[in-house]
Amino acid sequence: MGSSPRWWWSSSWASPPPSSTRHHKGEGWGLGGPVLVKAVGWFLLAGLFFRVLCSSFSSPPLTEIEKGKCNLFDGEWVPDPSGPAYTNATCRFIDDHQNCMLNGRPDMSYLRWRWKPYECELPQFDEVRFLSAMRNKSWGLVGDSILRNQIQSLICLLSKAEEPVEVYHDREFRNRRWHFKSYNFTISLLWTPFLIKSEVFENENGESSSEIQLHLDVLDPIWTSQYGNFDYVVIAGGQWFLKVAVYWENGRVIGCHYCQDKKLTELGFEHLYRGTLQRVFRFITSSNHKPVVLFRTWSPDHFENAEWFNGGTCKRVLPYKKGEYSGKDMDHVMRAIELEEFRKIMPALNGSGNAGTLKLLDTYSLSSMRPDGHVGPYRFPNRDKDDTSVQNDCLHWCVPGPIDAWNDLIMEMLLS
């Protein structure tokens, strides 16, 4: 991974409006230009905030917590002097832009914590046990750059037992596939940031020439065409839904989000994300193929003092304690949509006897407590980290880092 020059391509999750701002390769993680964020973004959020206050964000749907089992997602970070399961010296699959050790991060304290659920222990990832259980199986990881971030962690953990061979990648290294020969186990990365059909007018430098075109009524065939090949699927998204986009349904334009100089109805990101999740969940429940599907929840950023486009940073070196951090308004809005739509689909699964095929991988709470685990200014080596012009990445995670706990959770959920 680290050797692939475009692994990080399109890591920006919400670029400024293409008609007014051009951003260069690797830049940008925010909602849009400052004026739009303050004017349009807050206006939209104001209409949602009351509903958000009435929702619960700390616990997953009750259907996901089996009777007699602890809630793996409710706990705290506790000191772990043993350190990470791997390092940049022992794993060659870390993307350069998340390789905080290689890029000179001086503090190592962010590597010495482990996630501890309140009512049980979360075992450390066991690569041999995992690969043995997945012999002759195939995994598909479907989503955006945060999911690519997670797959780096997963492959680093698994490579302690056996290094995989990359058997496929497309021209931009967006879609990739690895094979663990001794176990006949395959992991595929399917890059589809919206999960629905999209037309993105960005070149390899991340420069946009037009608004994204999104087809709300058509799932992205990049992943649906391969769905039948997988025994396990991890699906996640969210951040790209905040981008400037024109919305289509039934072959015609029905509105937009953050559009400039267009006489189109502002539908907002909530409409897009809710409708997308409804379509994704309906596809899963109606498909004749029944893999185990893990839906991973919203991944928070921790920009402080400003946003990505105007000097926001993430300089904390310790986790938050339970209840110390309540999250951002955007976290609450997106998370409320996820939990509501997940709850709504569960009766259909229970009625068909396939409830076990869809599980909630609720990483939000544990991730929200780790402001210290982001890449920050350590995206590139040999950069003056005190230089205020260095753009911080407070969305993606250092590898190794807190993101390793996401894979610990996966193993416990599937193999316990």
Automatic annotation (TrEMBL):
Pfam families named among the record's database cross-references: PC-Esterase, PMR5N
Subcellular location: Golgi apparatus membrane
Domain Trichome birefringence-like C-terminal: start-end pairs: 122-413
Residue ranges of the region described as Disordered: 1-25
Keyword Transmembrane (UniProt): yes
Keywords per UniProt: Disulfide bond, Glycoprotein, Golgi apparatus, Membrane, Signal-anchor, Transferase, Transmembrane, Transmembrane helix
Annotated membrane topology: Single-pass type II membrane protein
GO annotations of cellular component type: Golgi membrane
Domain spans labelled Trichome birefringence-like N-terminal: 69-121
Similarity-based family: Belongs to the PC-esterase family. TBL subfamily.
Protein name as annotated: Trichome birefringence-like N-terminal domain-containing protein
